[in-house]
Amino acid sequence: MSALHDDYLVYVKEHELSAFSKIKKLVWLLTKTTFPIVLFYRLAHHNVSLVRYLSIPVYKIVRIISGVQIPRGTIIGKGLFLPHFGMIVLNKKAVYGEFLTIYHGVTVGAKGGASGDVKSPVIGNNVRLSTGSIILGDVTIGDNATIGAGAVVVKSIPANCVAVGNPAKPLVVNS
């Protein structure tokens, strides 16, 4: 459960809770943030069967209430941060790196349909998916990339850059 611990540390850092006591941090995170979504997502993957089976029904309810659709089969690296509730849809076959930040309104999936592209995206480490961004098909988002608000990614984005637009194009490449 080191992934859950890293998720917790990201939430504490992002919400500037380091001065709080451990109990106050936990209560604050459970009542005022999206941390319960991440918590039950991680518990639904727990190694202990009893924990996993008891958390699955709660996780399903949390998904419905929050509007964050992360299937149980999805594998996401440690340090997941969801700043806001609402309409996040992730493809369970996509590959997600560590320290991923996903804002509301993000969709990650395969193109499918008439295009015949059923492959899923690969998202690197330290990636930020901004509000309303859409990542579709057989694309790779490089490490340390930021996908701008409303961007539609249908071609791979290199590492260390900011991508914006429809279709998304690299705007700035940080060295």
What does this protein structure show overall?
With 175 residues, this protein is an alpha/beta fold. The chain has four helices and 13 strands. The protein has helices at residues 2-14, 22-32, 35-43, 49-66, and strands at residues 68-69, 88-90, 95-96, 101-102, 107-109, 122-123, 128-129, 134-136, 140-141, 146-147, 152-153, 161-164, 169-173. The strands form three sheets. The chain has a five-stranded parallel beta sheet. α1 (2-14) runs antiparallel to α3 and α3 (35-43) packs antiparallel against α4 (49-66). The longest helix has 18 residues, at 49-66. It is globular and about 45 Å long. The model has no long low-confidence stretch (mean pLDDT 89).
